[in-house]
Amino acid sequence: MEVKRDDYVYDNVIQVEDEGTIASRRFLAGVFTWMFVALGISAFVAYEFASNQSLFSLLFDANGGRTGLSVLLMFAPFAFILVMSFGMNKLSFPVLAVLFVAFAVCFGASLSIIMLVYTAGSILGVFVTASVIFATMAIAGYTTRQDLTSFGSLLIMALWGVIIASLVNRFFLQSDQLGYIISYIGVAVFVGLTAYDVQKLKRIGAGTEYGEADMQKMALMGALTLYLDFVNLFLMLLRIFGRRR
Question: pTM, whole model, 2 decimals?
Answer without folding.
Answer: 0.89
